[in-house]
């Protein structure tokens, strides 16, 4: 196992300690979140009773393969806890997510959860969000208009940068689980993430963006010197 994998596993193991019998769980997407699913599966095999709502087809496939019982948000009355990774987090526990392309389902699931626990390593901690290109999920109709509106919204906040459609391994625009495209915005330093989140959400062709504001209740950071846990004071 690489050092990076070991840290991801450690963060996932720390999150697993917050899981109790009977919980309804949101299951995140990405390499760190997949460690959580693997460790959760071991506990399920040992008798833990939980149900999970996956945030992507990839996570659903992994959970099914490992025997983690799944459900949908239509069949439960909200979730107790979501455990997911992130591409960046700042001092206020605001996040950039969507590096794996699952931001839309991830945000729906996180927003329907009493708590969202983010599992990360030190490399994801930033002073300013934005070094990781911000994923923006857009409908496939009228993207010229949507991109113009994104540029205008960004300019209103003194932000500029390239907007690039995410591509798949065949050189086609990457299609999300919901049938949309993703634009990666290189804003570099987002000094007003809440304002940018609101401005992007107001654009008709934007389905969702990867700024997760006031959603994470806890961030667990695995580092070489141990595991750190930061809780949002108000939650
Ligand atoms: O937001 C995500 C997927 O849409 C992931 O949680 C994020 O990209 C982090 O992934 P990883 O744990 O592989 O670094």
From TrEMBL:
Keyword set, alphabetical order: Isomerase
Enzymatic reactions: aldehydo-D-ribose 5-phosphate = D-ribulose 5-phosphate
Transmembrane segments: none
Its EC number(s): 5.3.1.6
The organism's place on the tree of life at top rank: Bacteria
Binding site for substrate: 29-32, 84-87, 97-100, 124
UniProt cross-references to InterPro entries, sorted A to Z: NagB/RpiA_transferase-like (IPR037171), Ribose-5P_isomerase (IPR050262), Ribose5P_isomerase_typA_subgr (IPR020672), Ribose5P_isomerase_type_A (IPR004788)
Any one GO biological process: pentose-phosphate shunt, non-oxidative branch
SUPFAM superfamilies in alphabetical order: D-ribose-5-phosphate isomerase (RpiA), lid domain (SSF75445), NagB/RpiA/CoA transferase-like (SSF100950)
Residue positions of the active site: 106
Entry's Gene Ontology molecular function annotations: ribose-5-phosphate isomerase activity
Family per similarity comment: Belongs to the ribose 5-phosphate isomerase family.
Subunit structure: Homodimer.
Cited function: Catalyzes the reversible conversion of ribose-5-phosphate to ribulose 5-phosphate.
Official protein name in the record: Ribose-5-phosphate isomerase A
Organism: Methylobrevis albus
Name of the gene this protein is made from: rpiA
